[in-house]
Write a structure and sequence with these properties.
15 helices; Aldehyde Dehydrogenase, Chain A, domain 2; globular; alpha/beta
Length: 498
Amino acid sequence: MTDLKMIIDGKEVDSASRQRMEVINPATEKPVGSVPKGTAGDVDRAVKAARAAFKKWSRITPGERSALLLKLADALDKDVQRLAEMETSQTGKPMKLSLNSDLPFANDNIRFMAAQARVLEGTAAGEYSPGYTSFVRREPIGVVGSIAPWNYPLQMAAWKILPAIAAGNTIVLKPAEITPLTALAFAEACTEAGIPNGVVNVVTGRGRVAGEALIGHPDVSMVSFTGSTPVGKRIAEIAAQTVKRVHLELGGKAPFVVFDDADLEAAIHGAVAGSLINTGQDCTAATRAYVHRSRFDEFVEGVAELFAAIKLGDPTDPATDLGPLSSLRQRDSVAGYVERARGYGAKIVVGGEIPGELRGTDFEAGAYYRPTLVTGASQDSEIVQQELFGPVLVALPFDSDDEALRMANDTPFGLAASAWTKDLVRAHRASRDIQAGCVWINDHIPIISEMPHGGYKQSGYGKDMSAYSLEEYTQVKHVMHDITGVARKDWHRTIFGA
């Protein structure tokens, strides 16, 4: 059991409620820890600590902030095994994903932001009006209130915290209520690395209580949220009452477009990896495969064969490919989409059930669901249009490039997409015409710290990672200096005198 406290002003504290929330391992449905059940009062304490820390933190040099972030990355490198085990225990994701992907990538994000903090600048000075020199200052915003999702708890905590504090802001983070452990461990590591008290604060609790108190707090200057589109709309509504800056990374329904000239073996393997990453609980996961009719049957057969071979089971076993969904509630939601699709005539090629081979094991009660491939659904059906967040891929045929691109864009979402082709012209057209914040060509899923991540349409606005993310967490100020020393300016005659 990992029983942790909130981190406020660099100290471990309990909630004013004196209540705690259990953290459940979705692979076994057994508790693995607990955290305080935060209140609006706890949020207020954290915001006050962040506000008090802001003046000093925002004034230290970028080099000093950078050095502290590099110390944090070094410390986390030494603790990667423990953190990966903690991440897997609360999410159920395979250890090979936590240990070999999530943790190393989060540390790479830290080092990138440490470097980027030192090159964050405004524009050079210049005389744009006679008698004046103008220049631009880029300044931090203040206290950032962030809410992170449950699918990549530590990595998303890093995405929220790092650009905020690299730019000189302070932050109050509320992690997802079902996966709060590694966000608290991350904040503890910040304090141990020497980041001043109050710069990074983590309040745990329910979204309707702690989350809404954070978003609506008058001393929070900016809000950053990653999660579902409906919750994002609610956050934007609350934030509008105090005219906060808002950054939203919301849902996705990524198309996976396979043209007739594609390397089909590569596309099949890409579809399996891209749709099952993190048990499909990834907003950029491949969810809609549009395949040229001449290659459709072969694609479906190849994906079904690989889906059937995926190994489910103990997330700590290096041989396990797929862990459970985040909760029984999430598993049942995914199963409901599949059953309704079956009811309106779609074909479940493989999967569509809770795995029977786990009966009689420690994982029988876990939130497992078999990788599922669906065909025969219509473009306007809910399984094609809505975000499931599970290990489900829907495949539909197309006859022309125009049809494929039209269907790829035919959802409210626009976070990510991929196109599979050997034709350079076709690839460029797809990358231009697909309405998504990221378009991969002949791959699906890889992201890098140097490039932005964020969506179009109802997938939100603003960017994570890259230098672009720092634009979200800073504001620009025009400073204009008189360089004449003349008391009475020429423009004064528009107010008084001849």
